[in-house]
Design brief:
The structure is a homodimer. Chain A is α+β, with helices and mostly antiparallel strands. Chain A contains 16 helices and 19 strands. Chains A, B: Keywords: FAD, Flavoprotein.
Chain lengths: 489, 489
């Protein structure tokens, strides 16, 4: 938890024995976890950095039970922390230490209710594990384009509540863009049935977008209608040594047309980042020995099978890369000749997080700016951080097509966690000041939760915070729904 | 105005001479229109079916003036009807006859502030005419994919406020999907600066999606950051005679992959619809003499120029159409061999509205259902309407990729407007009951405005209407912002 975070005021009505019995009457014995050991994974975030409390973990089996539980809590002023996979990075799903209410886990609601391959949609419950949904789509020759590190354990309800990002946003948009309809239990227990499989519906305010990204503070997402896309049939993956970040955005800008709008991913990595992975993760290999500070992992994905003798993604990419070398943006490049080669490129990208943990303590900022400002941000951001701590070791990387940089640093060699922590507030302030001066976002995809509560209130305008608070107070006047997250009320 | 619409209760504070002078002090003489003749186009909808009132039309030159005007109205309880191009079909931008406040037109705020081709975005003022924005994008080798009938006079502020649709939604989404950031003047006059050119920003509630589709009832959109796409370089347009609507959705379902996700448009037309156009619009030609009741206008658009000798969009489409004929879905088809031929196909589609006006009185419903339910909707909907008035002449058409059918009817031959009007409530109820039973939308792209106010409150759940009202009351407690539209408060 950041040093700056003082616990916000949250409702402290207790779960009395009588209320516990009422909860049991709704969800049954198997829907209640009241012992400390059983509660532990639900009150601690996955990194172990936030250790919260809850009187009881409630695990309803269906939306009617969720509704009854929420109504009971509403009538008694008991605070609720909605939770799906509890894999968030900002503590949005983890209770505050001062929390005396319940954790409401949607994990038992994990059914795929319907798949409509012709209509390119599927209807699912909030507790479905993301990877299961990817696999369900694939088994119908369709693609559900939400991919992120935690996909084996995160759940779609949490993904939507935090408007998750990942490596396919460039092409398909954030989680909110993958949704046609939602079912949500409101803070008073009412069930809002917005579970419509509609691509167009201009009948009043768009409520679904309000619940997505609200991190469970306005209601509990219980079901969703998700959009699907055709499955990939022809994929070209390449590893590019490039001149600099400015070259990266120019390459991407031209790749859209050259690939027929089929750019799937475009991941920027600094040499320090790839070196860190190669140093720490056994079995990884440098795809390209090149004398440059910057690399790009570029993937084009087409839903049309490559026909015998016809031009496929790889041939189009080859032509494109030759043009980009000619233009001086690409120094050297290799297109994967097999799935194994492509996999190796992706393993490097996906191993950044484990490699950084092996490297010891560090700092990381999940920021975004408009795509055109990425080079300026990186240059000025590095200077700002190095001015404060010259021996810190930056390894920037990012989803460049989203203007989203994971602006990351290993601590100086030999510096322990506590010493590094002393520099953290100054570096955080410098980075976030720069982001704000460039009209960027201090949390591109990870959300606010507990961790960035104070950063948000520092950087957002009074008018914007007031508008958010007005909405929160109107929809949750008792402040029982995930209180003390996103906003101080 | 529909017979069922009773005027809602709206604030009636008058614009006194003193307030008029305060308005003049803010916007100057050229920002005020107080004479009846000058006001006329601002208080009447473009079809002339709604004739409203306003004390004065106020035309601010910039957001600061908008803010001051709104603050003045807020402090004095004066109702405001925000207006851009006033081309909406539901009366959302046109004042009620009982309106005693102002019309606030954004028409003078019509500057393109910035175009960023590398970052694929542009920042514009709300009063920019849509077609100007299409042309601006094209002049930078970019594409702004909002295309609709009124594009020569509608303005982007209105397009976003109604979340406009059009013929490119299938690929690019509704207007709300084309937006990265907004600037909005709130009902109390505060300026919300959400003008961020960010593809990712998970910092609290997504306010922009709340204002889009709210039809000006929650605030006035004054600027927007719009997304751009690569300009088209290789286009294949075809006219297909098809088996039936079920074939249409199956053809589309397979076209996504075959075109490499490059389906730009897919418009379904009934034979009665195309016959009506050919009969009424001079110069139009039937692209295909085929014995079928249904046609499809299919367009694939790639951003990659066709290389000499390589397979382009037309070759891919030819192969696809052969497969679809083999499968019995396509009866006959022709791919346009020139821009003129493609243009002729589009003229037929675009001439449906003028042709229907030439044909005399009619009825039309802008509905959507999930794509897979389109065939069932058409079959049952036709039966329901013909059961009520057997001699009515249906000519259904629609954006099939959006599940959006313009479910349209010419009146029986020789029947006058007044007689047809007597059947209208029963047919409307039958169509909308069917839509609702299929979990569809009674207004897919045209919105609610005045016209569908009572339909919305009839068909939406109490919980959904209450949630919308809660938001409206919280953000606009004095109910001055476009009162009596979308919702009765």
């Amino acid at each position: 938890m950041p040093d700056t975070a003082l616990p916000p005021t949250i409702p402290t009505a207790p779960v009395t024995p009588a209320i516990l019995e009422s909860l049991r009457a709704i969800v049954g014995d198997k829907g209640l976890i009241a012992d400390d050991q059983g509660k532990q994974p639900f009150v601690t975030d996955w990194r172990g950095s936030i250790v919260g409390n809850a009187a009881v973990v409630v695990r309803p089996a269906n939306v009617e039970e969720v509704s009854k539980v929420v109504k009971l809590c509403h009538d008694n002023g008991i605070a609720i922390v909605p939770q799906a996979g509890n894999t968030g990075l900002m503590g949005g799903a983890t209770p505050w230490p001062s929390h005396t209410g319940i954790v409401l886990s949607v994990g038992r609601m994990n059914k795929v209710l319907n798949v409509d391959p012709v209509g390119y949609s599927m209807t699912v419950e909030a507790g479905c594990v993301l990877q299961t949904l990817q696999e369900t789509a694939a088994s119908h020759d369709r693609f559900f384009p939400l991919f992120l590190g935690a996909q084996g354990s995160c759940m779609i309800g949490g993904n939507l509540s935090t408007n998750a990002g990942g490596v396919q946003v460039l092409r398909y948009g954030n989680a909110r863009n993958l949704v046609m309809g939602l079912e949500v239990v409101l803070p008073n227990g009412d069930i809002w049935n917005g579970l419509r499989a509609l691509k167009k519906d201009n009948t009043g305010y768009d409520l679904k977008h309000l619940f997505m990204g609200a991190e469970g503070t306005l209601g509990i997402i219980t079901k969703a209608v998700l959009k699907l896309w055709p499955a990939a049939k022809d994929v070209a993956t390449a590893w590019l040594a490039i001149r600099d970040p400015q070259a990266a955005i120019e390459i991407l800008s031209e790749a859209h047309g050259a690939s027929e709008d089929n750019v799937g991913s475009c991941e920027l990595m600094s040499r320090t980042c790839t070196d860190m992975v190669l140093r720490n993760i056994p079995g990884t290999q440098d795809p390209l020995k090149a004398d440059t500070e910057w690399f790009l992992l570029l993937e084009w994905t087409s839903a049309r099978p490559k026909a015998e003798g016809a031009e496929g993604m790889a041939e189009k990419m080859e032509q494109f890369l030759a043009d980009q070398m000619e233009a001086g943006r690409v120094i050297d490049a290799v297109i994967a000749q097999s799935e194994a080669q492509a996999r190796n490129m992706w393993v490097i990208r996906e191993s950044v997080a484990p490699a950084s943990r092996a490297e010891g303590p560090g700092l990381s900022y999940d920021i975004s700016v408009s795509i055109s400002k990425v080079p300026e941000f990186i240059e000025r951001g590095l200077k700002a951080a190095l001015d404060i701590l010259p021996s810190i070791r930056p390894y920037p990387l990012g989803h460049i097509g989203d203007g989203n940089i994971h602006f990351s640093f290993m601590g100086p060699k030999g510096m322990d966690r506590e010493t590094l922590k002393q520099y953290s507030p100054a570096i955080t302030r410098a980075v976030n000041d720069l982001v704000t001066s460039l009209d960027g976002s201090i949390s591109a995809e990870h959300g606010i939760g507990i961790d960035k509560l104070d950063e948000l209130s520092h950087y957002r305008s009074r008018i914007e915070l007031d508008t958010m608070r007005t909405i929160k107070r109107a929809l949750d006047p008792k402040n029982i729904m995930n209180p003390g997250k996103v906003l101080r009320i």
